[in-house]
Amino acid sequence: MSTVNYSQFPLMRFVHWGPILSIIIYKCVTLTTLYFTEIWWPCYGSLGGFLNNTILLTLFFISFTCYLKCVIVGPGYLPLKWKPDLEEDQQYLQFCRICDGYKAPRVHHCHKCNRCVLRMDHHCPWLNTCVGHANHPYFVIFIIVSIIASIQSSILLLKTLVLVLAQYGHQILIYFPLNLTLLWITVFGLALCLTFTLSLLLYIQMKYVLKNSTTIEDWIIGKAISRREQDQSLPPFIFPYNLGRINNIKEFFAKGDGIHWKVRDECNVYDLTIEQLEQKLIKESWKKPMQVIKEYNGRWFPLVFGLCVCCQIPWTDEARMPLAVGDLVQVTRFHKYWMYGHKNLPDGSRLRGWFPKQCVTLFTKKDN
């Protein structure tokens, strides 16, 4: 089945549940807040009401514009069949078989986008694309402005409830039938959820921005530190892109090519990629070949494997991999009830994904 080339048709990213649901939720919260506020604080009745609506609509416009730029601009992709300028530098880089080229420093292949992404942070299903070098600043600005707008919406909706509760036994100022009550509960809950989740996301993102790092690079740093704790003979690992908080912020918003990056004076351009290669070798040595003994159809909630498997699924948008009895799977990650791995297909490609742990057993030479 052919996949959509989002780099050539970026508007096709909106044909997905993530962007559709995001736009519906955001517009619902904004318009409903304006509706309730207009009842008791009309924009034509006072300067305060006019300014309130203006601020809320301005915040919505800024955040929605940043959201659209995140989706349309995309993360920025490494050119297919990319190679470093110097042939001897290829030994320090990973090779991507799908893109048929080497991965530049800070580049990672996204199996959802099916391309190598420049300075990839993570794949966001709400954007239906990755957050990377090109759209990461828009993403952070979107989060900041959305939090402010969500807080304003929450306060205005709460003020509406206070006025409704205060009017009992007095002159009715706000008519609140059942359908409006349900709408208020829904939208107020959405506004609070947006405030809480986006605030948590902003904390995580700012932590990476101040270190000039990404979510993926933070994992690599953690593994590098762990390796040196276990093996004291290894030289200390210094993250090469941490230039100090002020310079890190400048680098984050800088309009570079996404391939060449400034590094610390005591570091080499390929320090991070060399560490990745070493970690990959360790990961390859940990791979366990498993043979499929139970068929799995790829469903997210496979009831046939029991309630525990369905209730403790991996909370990620990574694919689920259908299995047939006799398949050989290379397992690279595992949870209590689920495993992640890949199997080779007849055409030479690989199929990756999660599957229930009950489906497989350790492969031995006797099984061959």
The geometry reads as globular
Beta-strand content bin: 5-15%
Listing every helix as H and every strand as E from the N terminus to the C terminus, the arrangement reads: HHEEEEEEHHHHHEHEEEE
The low-confidence parts are none
Category by helix and strand content: alpha+beta
Q: Terminal Cα separation, in Å?
A: 31 Å
Major sheet characteristics: 5 strands, antiparallel
How many alpha or pi helices? 8
Query: Cα-atom Rg, whole angstroms?
Result: 25 Å
Q: Which sequence of strands runs across the widest sheet?
A: 10-9-8-7-11
Average of the residue pLDDT scores:
90
State the share of residues found in helices, binned by percent. 40-55%
Number of strands: 11
Keyword list:
368 residues; alpha+beta; SH3 type barrels; five-stranded antiparallel sheet; two-stranded antiparallel sheet; 44% helix
Overview of this structure, please?
The chain has 368 residues and is of the alpha+beta class. Among the domains are: 10-75 and 133-211, no CATH class; 287-367, SH3 Domains (SH3 type barrels, Roll), CATH 2.30.30.40. The chain is built from 8 helices and 11 strands. It has helices at 17-40, 47-73, 136-166, 178-211, 215-230, 245-253, 271-286, 307-311, and strands at 95-96, 101-102, 108-110, 115-117, 122-124, 129-131, 288-292, 328-334, 338-344, 350-356, 360-362. The strands form 4 sheets. A 5-stranded antiparallel β-sheet has the order 10-9-8-7-11, covered by helices on one side. It has a two-stranded antiparallel sheet with strand order 1-2. A two-stranded antiparallel ribbon has the order 3-4. Strand 1 and strand 2 (101-102) form a beta hairpin. Helix 2 runs antiparallel to helix 3 and helix 3 runs antiparallel to helix 4. The two termini are 31 Å apart.
